[in-house]
Specification:
1175 residues, alpha/beta, 19 helices, disordered N terminus, protein serine/threonine phosphatase activity
Length: 1175
């Protein structure tokens, strides 16, 4: 059989020709591509074969013979074959498929990204192929389907061999004389042979991304060549052969090694109109003889080393790009100039003569302009002017009254006033944020009737001008940003005049209330941000805003839940950090509600009915009310605590994830991270779930910061698997620990990052950047590295047009241009360090380091501070996902809360380190309850994990009063932890809910649920700490033979690794951790509240981890099917079933147990409990 991916094949009776001279014979018949192949049955692979092109031919039915078809080729020398089929089904199938072939032409074949080494043999029989795409393969020259056979395609016009690592120019392609387009980019070519001159029909030649430094003279003979790509090679000057290529109108030489540009060279190349010399090493542009350059209309000099630029001799220049140089002066001719892009330089002025009356767009942002040149106001057609991030103290009145200006961006300057509008202007967008404005022009809104966007955030406004001079308003304003001013509730009367408002941000002002009658008139409002004011309530008239989909009102004093859950389009409600006490809900919630944030409302009480009603919400954020016990002294004196915030912006999905572990490894370590997937959410979620585990595992093998951090990133990169092939994410990881040389010494902060996520430390009120931004625009070293590896960098400074980052986790297909190797830096911490800020690219693009530090300093609560950072970034114009983590630091001996040493004369029992692993504390035993930043423990039928802050229910268990005084453990602070006992337990910090598994028909009044476990009807969700390795303690050998025996048996655990150290069993199972104190694993697997921890994960993909820790994932399992009850709590073990061992027999029982079965054994054996209450 032919090894072809043919449409049809088989052995049939065949006769050649229309006459009866030929006999019928059994032949192998294949319909392949556009050809009919007939060959011998026995020698089909080696014998002679007949190929009949069918395109343009005929397929006809032979009426005098049953089930017979006649195949004929086209042309004067047409051939004919008769094929007789055995069955009617074969006959109809062949007739149908062959009829399609003869009526169409297969001319384009795309075999890119197939890891091919040769061209499939059958393609050579399809003579009609005109376009062949073989990019991103591993093509070889030799072999039956090697590149040497490409000349067999007699009609080939377009050939793409880019990204094949050829190493040498395939001279065989110079024999394909029909070629009009040839792409040999990214093949490590060093020379181009002279045979290239044979391709007289060639019109497009792409040689980008190679190692070329010269071109052959024969290339100048290709008079039809109109496009030549030479970008990202090693040219140090413009090749002279270009003077002969008169049809080429664009010089594409970005990313080469050209250091100087002689304008007289361009004069000799009079056919070049577009010059692209970005990303070279240009240091000067010379014009010695003042000869005019008349033909050049577009010039791109971005990302070079120019400190001055005089292009006055380029007479017909229409578009100039010179961003990201070091320009101090710029001189241009203004006769034909239409667009000028000169941002990110050091310009103090721009000289253009004569006045550019054709200029429509000008970008002078991020320069040193203290005033605008006079000629700017004389431009008759200017539509867009961007002068943000300069030193402007005033705007010319003539500029604002321009009759052509539609978009004016003047944010981040020093403006103290805006000139009055004298007449109606066509202005549509005005950005005045981050200035020193105390007022706006009185006539702004009724003179600029086309104004749709106005941003005056971060000023000192105390009032806003009226929308009109009469009661009837003609305002068309749709987006109004007023965040960070000194406005009070009186502004509501003015805002009502803008009845077309869709987005209103008035956060962080001085509003005590919002007039109810005014809010009801904003019927078109879609997004409302009232955060950071002093509101006690939101008017009930908000229900009149039927189009409202986003309400953000965190950090106020709101006590009553607003009437917004009856709005038909509501999607997001953020009422965190308020003073809510209860929620009155309608009978049903709108199906559009996707996110509800109620964290930071310490007095909020939620009933079971309310929780059931919230079950469909994708992301529900609630506080977890922690129980204060004796063991909480560790957390109360923690040297750090954190808060975080994530906002999706105007995107439909959240592509930012946060990792936060206040208790990492031992009691004085912490781990924080942030991951930004830009436009994908899969990779950030995977990194959030695995990176903490990987770090802790690497800490077992090395204590050198660069080693364990690099290994953590590389291992996490590998663990992404298939998701990391084409998707990637920026990642930032911060690890707080003791100095390696002195475990009892000072704290250090080790930071590692790839991509654009950043970390900033506040020290003495000043920002200290700790990370490195790995983007091509911000990192010169990375730009050079990527250029040397011959990547194609597009005009928006993205590698292959995909990402602006040169280092990411994931995006493996972009290697070696994009690497996962991180920047690693260790910073010693001191008492002057106040807090740490982690943020993604979107945050720090809008909020500077200094503003971020000042913002957090003004807010006490880290969570409220993180939310404020995100809200500010949104109000400053950010539309992307935003993520921020704020870690409050309390480093210093002042934090010490250790108990003073007290001498005792009476022994009160064995030291804590000798407590055996089989200790099973009772439900009310305080030693089981720990801080809110450890791990979730004992999700079992005996002990509830915690008491929910929403008062969802209590565990159905009995109290076991102590029969005697219990020795109180010595209280130790986090700075000086006890060395004899390491018990890492954690209560869940929040409640999570899923929208995919809900059953609102269940009755919640029959039985109370377990605390810390939330049910969505048929599914149960438990918050579990995903950072399991963090609790594999790095301490010494076990204390007793029994402990050693436990460690040996733990290795037999089927799905993970078990480790016993002190009194903690740590089991890494499918990426989750289960910490068990005296609990048989077999029982835990059967317990409804813990069986989900052994590998079953939630499928709805929602991210909910609101309170003090974000290092959680949701784990779903099947709840017991009951006809009634919110869900059935597992039966509690009777105290009488436990074997109480008196202290006098303790040592004897220990010795007997050494030879008994392991901890994971018979499920029916009673738990063994040491009677410590009688000691």
């Amino acid at each position: 059989m032919w090894d072809f991916p043919s449409r049809a094949s088989g052995v049939f009776s065949v006769r050649k020709g229309k006459t009866q001279l030929h006999k019928w014979a059994e032949r192998q018949v294949i319909l392949c591509g556009t050809c009919l192949i007939v060959a011998s049955v026995k020698d089909s692979l080696t014998g002679k074969m007949h190929i009949l092109p069918l395109v343009g031919g005929k397929v006809e039915e032979v009426k005098r013979r049953q089930h017979c078809l006649m195949f004929s080729s086209a042309g004067s020398q047409a051939q004919t074959y008769f094929v007789n089929f055995d069955t009617l089904a074969d006959y109809q199938r062949w007739h149908r498929q062959a009829s399609k072939v003869v009526s169409q032409t297969v001319s384009l074949v795309d075999l890119s990204c197939y890891s091919l080494e040769t061209v499939p043999e059958y393609l050579f029989y399809s003579q009609d192929i005109t376009h062949l795409n073989l990019r991103h393969n591993f093509m070889s020259l030799q072999g039956p389907g090697g590149l040497l056979n490409l000349p067999r395609f007699s009609q080939l016009k377009s050939l793409n061999l880019s990204h094949n690592r050829l190493g040498v120019f395939p001279e065989c392609v110079c024999e394909i004389l029909t070629l009009t387009e040839l792409n040999l980019s990214c093949n490590s070519l060093h020379t181009v042979p002279g045979q290239i001159g044979n391709l007289q029909s060639l019109q497009t030649l792409s040689l980008d991304g190679n190692h070329l430094s010269s071109l052959p003279e024969e290339l100048g003979g290709l008079f039809q060549l109109n496009s030549l790509g030479l970008s990202f090679n090693n040219f140090s000057h413009i090749p002279a052969v270009l003077e002969r290529l008169s049809a080429v109108d664009k010089l594409a030489m970005a990313g080469n090694r050209v250091e100087s540009l002689e304008l007289c060279t361009l004069v000799r190349m009079s056919h070049l109109k577009i010059i692209d010399l970005r990303l070279n090493r240009l240091r000067w542009v010379k014009s010695e003889n003042l000869e005019a350059v008349n033909q050049v209309t577009q010039l791109d000099l971005r990302d070079n080393c120019l400190d001055s630029l005089d292009l006055s001799s380029v007479c017909n220049l229409e578009t100039l790009h010179c961003q990201r140089n070091q320009l101090g002066t710029l001189t241009l001719g203004g006769f034909t100039l239409r667009m000028l892009h000169a941002s990110s330089n050091r310009l103090t002025t721009v000289n253009i003569y004569p006045v550019p009356n054709q200029l429509t767009h000008m970008d002078l942002s991020q320069n040193l302009l203290e005033y605008l040149p006079d000629w700017v106001c004389d431009c008759r057609k200017i539509e867009m002017l961007d002068v943000t991030h300069n030193l402007l103290s005033e705007l010319p009145s003539r500029l604002l009254n321009s009759l052509s200006l539609r978009k004016l961006l003047t944010g981040n300057n020093r403006l103290q006033r805006v000139p009055d509008l004298l007449d109606h202007v066509p202005l549509e967008a005005l950005d005045l944020q981050h200035n020193k404005l105390a007022e706006l022009p009185e006539s702004l809104f009724y003179k600029a009737l086309n104004l749709k966007y106005l941003n005056v955030s971060a000023n000192a406004l105390e009032s806003i001008p009226p929308s009109s001079q009469s009661e009837e308003s003609l305002s068309t304003l749709q987006e109004f940003y007023l965040t960070g001013n000194n406005l009070n509730e009186n502004c509501g009367a003015v805002l009502v005049g803008h009845q077309n408002l869709r987005i209103l941000h008035i956060a962080y002002n001085q509003l005590l209330s919002f007039p109810a009658s005014k809010l009801s008139k904003l019927e078109l409002l879609e997004e409302l941000n009232l955060s950071g004011n002093k509101l006690k309530t939101i008017p009930s008239t908000v229900s009149s805003c039927k189009r409202l989909h986003t309400l953000i009102a965190h950090s106020n004093h709101i006590t009553v839940f607003p009437e917004i859950l009856n709005l038909p389009e509501i999607k997001l409600v953020d009422l965190s950090c308020n003073e809510l006490t209860e929620i009155q809900l309608p009978d049903s919630l709108p199906p559009t509600l996707q996110e509800l944030d109620l964290t930071g409302n310490s007095s909020l009480m939620l009933e079971h009915k309310t929780l059931n009603l919230f079950s469909h919400i994708t992301t529900l954020k609630l506080d977890q009310k922690s129980t204060t016990t004796a063991a909480d002294s560790l957390s109360s004196s923690s040297p750090w605590n954190h808060g975080y915030s994530e906002m999706s912006g105007q995107r439909n999905k959240l592509c930012v994830s946060v990792l936060a572990v206040d208790r990492f490894g031992d009691s004085v370590e912490a781990c924080y991270g942030i991951f930004d997937g830009d436009r994908n959410e899969e990779v950030p979620r995977l990194l959030q779930c695995t990176m903490g585990d990987v770090l802790c595992e690497e800490l077992q093998h090395s204590s050198i910061d660069s080693v364990y951090m690099c290994n953590t990133f590389l291992t996490s990169h590998r663990k992404l698997g298939m998701a990391g092939q084409k998707l990637g994410a920026s990642a930032l990881l911060c690890y707080i620990h003791r100095e390696t040389s002195d475990p009892g010494g000072n704290f250090c902060l080790t930071v590692a990052n790839v991509g654009t996520c950043q970390a900033v430390l506040c020290r003495n009120g000043r920002p200290v950047p700790l990370s490195k931004v790995y983007s091509l625009e911000n990192c010169t070293e990375e730009m050079e590295r990527v250029k040397l590896s011959k990547a194609i960098i597009t005009e928006d400074n993205k590698v292959s047009g995909v990402t602006c980052c040169s280092r990411l986790l994931g995006c493996s297909y972009l290697s070696p241009w994009v690497l996962p190797k991180p920047w690693v830096h260790t910073e010693p911490l001191c008492s002057q360090d106040e807090f740490l800020i982690l943020g993604n690219r979107a945050l720090f693009e809008r909020v500077s380091y200094q503003e971020a530090v000042c913002t957090v300093q003004a807010v006490q609560d880290p969570r409220a501070a993180a939310k404020k950072l995100c809200s500010l970034a949104q109000s400053y114009g950010c539309k992307d996902n935003i993520g921020a983590v704020v870690v409050s630091l309390h480093i210093g001996e002042d934090s010490c809360t250790c108990d003073p040493l007290v001498s005792t004369t009476e022994s009160r029992g064995p030291p804590p380190a000798t407590v055996p692993a089989t200790v099973t504390p009772g439900p009310s035993d305080p030693v089981n309850l720990s801080s809110s930043s450890g791990i979730v423990t004992e999700f079992s039928s005996e002990t509830s994990a915690s008491e929910m802050g929403s008062e969802a229910g209590s565990t159905a268990s009995d109290e076991h009063p102590s029969s005697g005084p219990v020795s109180r453990p010595e209280r130790r602070c986090s700075l000086h932890p006890a060395t004899t006992l390491c018990l890492f337990q954690r209560q869940p910090s929040c409640a999570t809910f899923s929208s995919n598994q809900s059953d609102n028909g269940l009755d919640s009044d029959d039985e109370a649920p377990l605390e810390g476990v939330i049910s969505n009807g048929s599914k149960l969700e438990v918050e579990v700490d995903i950072h399991c390795c963090a609790f594999q303690l790095r301490s010494g050998a076990p204390d007793s033979p029994k402990e050693l025996d436990f460690e040996k048996r733990g290795s037999d655990y089927p799905n993970g690794k078990m480790r016993r150290q002190n009194s903690v069993v740590v089991s890494a199972t499918n990426g989750c951790l289960l910490a068990v104190c005296g609990r048989e694993i077999a029982d835990l697997k059967k317990s409804p509240s813990t069986s989900s921890l052994f590998g079953k994960k939630l499928s709805n993909g929602s991210v909910v981890a609101p309170e003090d820790s974000h290092n959680l994932i949701e784990v779903a399992l099947e709840a017991p099917k009951k006809k009634s009850g919110y869900f059935t709590a597992p039966a509690q073990q009777d105290p009488e079933d436990q074997l109480i061992v008196p202290p006098s027999l303790e040592q004897e029982v220990r010795e007997q147990l050494r030879g008994q079965s392991p901890l994971v054994s018979d499920k029916n054996k009673p738990d063994l409990k040491w009677d410590t209450s009688r000691v």
